[in-house]
Design a protein that fits this description.
The chain is α+β, with helices and mostly antiparallel strands. Helix content is 33%, strand content 31%. The strands form two sheets. A four-stranded antiparallel β-sheet has the order 3-4-2-5. The longest helix is centred in the first third of the chain and has 19 residues.
């Protein structure tokens, strides 16, 4: 993650389909560390595994905090097929982490919450703009290019203007 500001208006360099995966947890009982800490610790192992494998399909990710209780991870994938393949692969870190999480969830009852959302976005159905920002979001995952290369207006970048 670079903190170098790119001056001017940029957009993400991605041109094909992209899959956006949001995953998060809500700590419902801070004092019940045993119920949420294992959930929190599982994700870095998976991200390290995915980041070390260029064929995994993970393009990039960003950890976000939604206040003192909410932790959200935004992931960008090259395809939904690669995301689903990783999630179900018996020899990768996700399957055992998911099984452990489900055991912890049952034991912890309502002390930790969990959610995820998956969006498969076809090529040309997304746009982005970053002004005087270091690479961020989709541009951090796929590279930043000058806005003019994809169109000066959001509608242009979305292919909505003739």
């Amino acid at each position: 993650m670079s903190s170098t500001i790119i001056k001017g208006r940029m957009t993400a360099g991605s041109e094909g389909e992209v899959t956006v995966f949001l995953i998060g947890m809500r700590i419902n009982s801070f004092w019940r560390l045993r119920t949420w800490l294992p959930v929190f610790r599982a994700m870095p192992r998976m991200l390290k595994e995915l980041s070390g494998d260029p064929e995994s399909g993970l393009l990039g990710f960003r950890l976000l905090y939604g206040g003192p209780r909410i932790i959200c991870l935004v992931q960008y994938w090259s395809s939904h097929e690669k995301l689903l393949a990783y999630a179900s692969a018996p020899d990768r870190a996700h399957r055992p982490a998911w099984a452990a999480f489900n055991r912890a969830l049952r034991a912890g009852r309502d002390r930790v919450g969990f959610w995820h959302e998956t969006y498969v976005v076809p090529a040309g159905a997304y746009e982005s703009v970053y002004v005087n920002m270091p690479p961020f979001g989709l541009a951090e995952a796929t590279g930043a290019i000058p806005v003019g290369r994809r169109g000066e207006r959001a509608a242009d970048r979305l292919g909505l203007r003739p």
